[in-house]
Amino acid sequence: MKPMITLSIALGLAVTAASSASAQSQATMNANAAQELQRADRALNSQYTTTMGRLSPASRTLLRTAQRTWISFRDQQCRFEASGVQGGSAYPMVHSTCLARLTTERTRQLRTLSQCQEGDLSCPR
Prior knowledge:
Layout: H1 2-22, H2 26-53, H3 57-81, H4 91-114
Helix pairs in contact: 2-4, 3-4
């Protein structure tokens, strides 16, 4: 019986140590979400520049307007999505996660626009 108790205690300590190692404070989770948003924003800015470089002057003007409107939409959408935790310690994480998600989606959209095949009439030039 004594070896079984020792094994149970050892397993319990191992599980506790593993849980402690993976546990994060809210401040750490907020910081990680902010870093992910920064990465997503850098990728978006890079793709935006690439896409703009492939467009005619008239299309660049249209994309610039669309991008400004999209940024406003993204910001308002994420304020809405995070409103359930407004004022709480999780708000920065929820808000940043939303911003990163929508920013990543927009990066994909811009990448698709920059990879149009010749003759595709649905793509701006």
